[in-house]
Structure formats: structure tokens, C-alpha cells
Design a protein that fits this description.
GO terms for molecular function: metal ion binding. The chain has 326 residues and is α/β, with parallel strands linked by helices. Helix 2 links the parallel strand 1 and strand 2. Helix 2 packs antiparallel against helix 11. The protein is globular, with a radius of gyration of 21 Å. Strands 1, 2, 3, 4, 5, 6, 7, 8, 9 and 10 form a ten-stranded mixed β-sheet that branches. It folds into two domains: 169 residues, D-Maltodextrin-Binding Protein, domain 2, CATH 3.40.190; 135 residues, Periplasmic binding protein-like II (D-Maltodextrin-Binding Protein, domain 2, 3-Layer(aba) Sandwich). Bound molecules: fe (ii) ion (FE2). Fe (ii) ion binds next to loops. The site of fe (ii) ion has 3 residues, from loops.
Length: 326
């Protein structure tokens, strides 16, 4: 065999490794901002395939070893935890796992929490005073709350359901879901919960904190909105803090570069800076402050739990169906 330009072999090999493919269930603008910022920082291009968490996770499972995905970024811990449970994720390096707020690092160590999302109540102060709001979402099934609040069967609502299965059991969770369906108004999407509360159609609604901050920014400031955000600030399921996460797929042919992306996501001057500036989700690394005027993680009280424990998303989905919510 004649060796052609032996010295150039390595650069040929590298050409296939210059692009990473990221399957993302996160808000698409945010995922794309991460991709372009990583490319400017490292020269490695990141191609984003965006959809819902459940779609992207479903695709990865279906594609198996042939999957194009090097990386997965999910909005919710549950879908990520379900991939992890199936053994499809590569471990995250210990020094990288040491960077984010340790309360969100999954016990498995196979994915990195990158942003926190608080479950909250949006309320309309012209309809209800903040101190009259329930201190537990478990109380919402009581007759006194009938017809007064909105909710949406979003990914985070599914996470809440998964969390309740783990803490109060399946039967009580199903009972609760049936009560929510009977008492609440299903507005289908978190954004609709926000808008309908803002418009005074409901006294309050269950949602994720950041939807309100997105609207406040669009309208030119928090004082331009009538509605407000209520953080339960306790150990109730209504105060859950859910981690969005990133991981390298075991099937990726590009383990090293993908791990580099994961590491960059934890860097204060890397992915965390993009979290702070491009989305009102809460940065995970100490010293990185959101541009959206969000409360810091340390200023809030929320339940302690292992984000990896929300791998029971299928069971949560089943209950939502049984209750007639989805
Ligand atoms: Fe969202």
C-alpha cells in the first residue's frame, strides 16, 4: 500500500468530528443560542434538532445505536432520567458535576443540570390577594377552589405528577389529578395559563416561573403586567424546582467533543452565561446572575428530592390519561 500524504491523515479524520448534533426539548431559541455561542467559543459547530422532550427522547430510543444525536438537552428532568434509566447516557466527569448547585445533580451522575425552573402560581391581584393563595397544591381539590384556577398538562405538570407518585403514592396522585380536572380550568399550555390569569379570566394558575418573565420583558417591564408570580417558598409539590439537563449519548461517536460541550454548559463564562442572558430560567452555577431579575436559588425554599427519581414519566403519563387530563 502506498501511503498518501501520511501527515494529513489526522485532519481528514477530524472532519467528521467537527459537528455535534444536539437533540433538544428546550425552547428552540435558547438551544440555538447555546449552539452558536459554543461554536464561537470553540469552533465546533452544533446542529440543533428541536422538538418536545418526549419527541426527542422517543427518537433517541427508536434510533438506538444509529442515532445521529451526540447530545441531548431536555427541559424537564423526567425524560432525561428515563433515558438514563435505560442506560443510554455516558457519565459526566466528576469535576464537571461539581460545578452546578449540588441539590440538582442527579444521583446517577450521568447528566448535568444546566438551568432551574420553578413551579409557581401566577395570580391576578385584582382577583385574589397573594396571602389568600393556597399554600399547597394538594388543597386545590377542595370545593372552595372550584373554578378559580388554571393549569396546563405541560412537561412540568407531568414532573409534578411523577413527584407526587414518588411521595404520596399512585392512588392519592390519581385522586388529586381527578380533583384538579374537576376544579381547575385546563388551559393546555403554560403560556395560556399566564395570559388568561393576566387577563383576569382566573384568579390564579399553576405554571413555570419563566413564562411570566418572558411576557414582562415583551411588555417592557414587570410593572406593565397586572399579574404577579407567587413562589410558594415551602416544601410543597407546588414549589418544585425542576432541572433542565444536558448529557452525552452513549451511542455518540464523538464522546470527547460532546463531553466538552457538557463541560462548557457548566462554565460561568460558557453555557451558564447564555442561560443568564437568553432565558429567564435560573442559572445553576454560583456567581452567575440572570439578566431577568429572577430570585436566586439560595433565596427560595423548595422540596428536596433526587432529580433522577423522576424517571417514572410513563407512570405519570398513564395517570394523566386515567384522570382524563390528556
Ligand atoms: Fe417551557
Amino acid at each position: 500500500m502506498v501511503s498518501l500524504a501520511a501527515g494529513c491523515g489526522s485532519s481528514d479524520d477530524a472532519s467528521s468530528g467537527d459537528t455535534l448534533t444536539l437533540y433538544s426539548g428546550q425552547h428552540e431559541d435558547f438551544a440555538k443560542a447555546l449552539a452558536s455561542s459554543f461554536e464561537s467559543a470553540t469552533g465546533t459547530k452544533v446542529e440543533v434538532r428541536a422538538g418536545k422532550d418526549s419527541e426527542m427522547v422517543g427518537q433517541i430510543v427508536e434510533e438506538g445505536d444509529r442515532s445521529k444525536a451526540d447530545l441531548i438537552l431536555t427541559e424537564e428532568p423526567g425524560p432525561m432520567a428515563s433515558l438514563d434509566k435505560q442506560g443510554l447516557l455516558s457519565p459526566v466527569a466528576k469535576d464537571v458535576l461539581a460545578l452546578p448547585d449540588q441539590r440538582f445533580v442527579p444521583s446517577t451522575g450521568n447528566w448535568l443540570p444546566v438551568a432551574a425552573r420553578a413551579r409557581v402560581m401566577f395570580f391576578n391581584p385584582t382577583k385574589i390577594a397573594e396571602d389568600k393563595l393556597p399554600s399547597s397544591i394538594l388543597d386545590l381539590t377542595k370545593p372552595e377552589w372550584k373554578g378559580r384556577f388554571a393549569y396546563a398538562p405541560s412537561g412540568a405538570f407531568k414532573s409534578t405528577t411523577a413527584y407526587l407518585i414518588n411521595t404520596i403514592g399512585k392512588d392519592k396522585t390519581l385522586e388529586w389529578l381527578k380533583g384538579i380536572k374537576a376544579n381547575g380550568v385546563n388551559e393546555q399550555k403554560n403560556g395560556k395559563v399566564r395570559d388568561s390569569v393576566e387577563a383576569g379570566q382566573h384568579e390564579f394558575g399553576l405554571s413555570n416561573h419563566y413564562y411570566w418573565y418572558i411576557l414582562a420583558k415583551e411588555k417592557g417591564g414587570e410593572d406593565k403586567l397586572t399579574s404577579r408570580v407567587h413562589y410558594l417558598n415551602n416544601d410543597d409539590a407546588g414549589a418544585l424546582m425542576l432541572a433542565s439537563g444536558v448529557a452525552t449519548l452513549k451511542s455518540s461517536k464523538n464522546q470527547e467533543k460532546a463531553a466538552e460541550f457538557v463541560k462548557w454548559m457548566a462554565a460561568a463564562d460558557g453555557g451558564q452565561k447564555v442561560v443568564a442572558s437568553e432565558t429567564p430560567q435560573i442559572p445553576m452555577v454560583a456567581g452567575v446572575t440572570s439578566a431577568y431579575g429572577l430570585p436566586a436559588l439560595d433565596s427560595l425554599t423548595f422540596p428536596k428530592f433526587d432529580q433522577a427519581s423522576l424517571d417514572n414519566v410513563d407512570a405519570a403519563n398513564d395517570l394523566l390519561k386515567q384522570a382524563g387530563i390528556v
